[in-house]
């Protein structure tokens, strides 16, 4: 027997119409490139998104066509986020920090018909135009007429100004309902190996993910919250925040392109941001700025950190010096992206001091709706004892089943789970902790050493700004950890002293065999350490030495 509840499909347009109807005055604030602040409301976002639907139709976009964006976090980008799925098209956010060849590849692979481009990417779109002309018909610069940049396109492509198009269109579109499994958005993974792969979200997966991340034990969003996603809108839908804020009526603060410590402190304080989300690198930049300027955070109470492991220093410094709680989440493009969040259960609620920090370093509990497990090399499930570590597997309604263009189900293991490529432990209370990417873990004499644990300890040294540990080939042990560190500005790193900080924190055989001081470390387009480049460069360091 089926239930007798109304079969309303979960539609992204319903999130927006809810915000417009029930939180009409809630603010959406954007920092523009010119340093000005644009303010309007969720009701305005809804009205302008309807106008944008008419624009898209005039540009020839139809159901399931892909609409690309090359843009920072701002209000026009937000309107593209809602207008495209609202008319059954697909919003394809592209990471502008990728190599232009990769960007052209992604645009062609997705067959984007129209591109919406921030003015700062005018040279980029000019450079790739000859390579994307077979798919892209129109380029719309996210600008008013006065600030239109110089752009040269290939023959057959047309150039437009966003505000001019919107001013010349009507807002008479009516949102419709259709199958909630219809594709809504497309995002390519950063692709540290091989070509980037597309993850295709649906109205259903997006809505369920947004509902869940808004929950108290996740981002804890209220109509009184003021949320700033530092995480870019081109990276996994800014972790779902543009949808969850509309759903809860929270104010959404979009920071534009300037994410340095001083700009962040300024916008967090002037816009009274209660919670902000991003990668550890941004928070380290903010911390350095606060310390050197003597400024404080006047409204921000919580920082969500994710995307890569948070160093303990970050958690301690924000708690002790600024009374801000750093909360840890984990996820990936294939998971929409949030999979786990570290909010305490009763047993962890009273933790203090080092115990608190130690616990906060864990990536957290699985979100309701998803499930996770860890398995050994043979696929056998491992115990939740906080010690055994194995490959982390997940499943649930906002986990991908296949990459864009591939057969449904082709990204899954035979038993239906998705292998994340992360290696993790799970403690008896269900808190998961990433120990490594499966390809970064160091296999020394058949035993595994976590590169993340070693990096976290290295950055607790007062002279170290950043650290990377890689598996270097070793004549006796197969692989041994090699530590690369960057000195803090004005400091000199003594390798012996860095090795000293490991004393009592890890088993002796985990100690890096060597510490190399380097000027800088390479990062991926999403700000993560590019270990593949380091491995290529330093893989044979110990072999060469022993030879
Ligand atoms: P992406 O798809 O680019 O978001 O990358 C996802 C990957 O980032 C995950 O598989 C993890 O390896 C890593 N990651 C994300 N969040 C965390 C975190 N909180 N701690 C450690 N690694 C993380």
Structure description:
The chain is of the alpha/beta class. It has a domain at 442-546: ANL, C-terminal domain (GMP Synthetase, Chain A, domain 3, 2-Layer Sandwich), CATH 3.30.300. The chain is built from 17 helices and 25 strands. A nine-stranded mixed beta sheet has the order 2-1-11-10-12-13-14-15-16, sandwiched between helices. Helix 7 (203-213) packs across helix 8. It is globular. The N and C termini lie far apart (73 Å). Bound molecules: adenosine monophosphate. The site of adenosine monophosphate has 21 residues, from strand 14, strand 19 and strand 20.
Unique bound compounds: adenosine monophosphate
Name the poorly predicted regions. Answer: none
Give the CATH level 1 class of the domain at 442-546: Alpha Beta
Compute the number of strand runs: 25
Global mean pLDDT = 95
| Sheet of most strands | 9 strands, mixed
How many helices? 17
Structural class: alpha/beta
The CATH topology label of the domain at 442-546 is: GMP Synthetase, Chain A, domain 3
If classified by CATH, what would the architecture of the domain at 442-546 be?
2-Layer Sandwich
The geometry reads as globular
How many whole angstroms does the radius of gyration measure? 24 Å
- Please list the strands of the largest sheet in the order they lie side by side: 2-1-11-10-12-13-14-15-16
Concise description?
Helix content is 30%, strand content 24%. With 547 residues, it is α/β, with parallel strands linked by helices.
Question: What's the topology here?
Answer:
Blueprint: H1 12-22, E1 27-31, E2 37-41, H2 42-58, E3 66-70, H3 75-86, E4 90-93, H4 100-110, E5 112-118, H5 122-132, E6 138-142, E7 158-161, H6 162-167, E8 183-188, E9 198-202, H7 203-213, E10 226-229, H8 241-248, E11 251-254, H9 261-270, E12 275-278, H10 280-293, E13 302-305, H11 312-322, E14 325-331, E15 338-341, H12 346-349, H13 353-360, E16 365-366, E17 371-375, E18 390-395, E19 418-426, E20 432-437, E21 442-444, E22 447-449, H14 451-458, E23 464-474, E24 478-487, H15 495-500, E25 514-517, H16 531-538, H17 541-546
Parallel strand pairs: 1-11, 3-4, 3-5, 4-8, 5-6, 6-7, 10-11, 10-12, 12-13, 13-14, 24-25
Antiparallel strand pairs: 1-2, 8-9, 14-15, 15-16, 17-18, 18-19, 19-20, 21-22, 23-24
Helix pairs in contact: 1-2, 1-8, 2-3, 4-5, 7-8, 9-10
The structure holds adenosine monophosphate (AMP).
Adenosine monophosphate binds next to strand 14, strand 19 and strand 20.
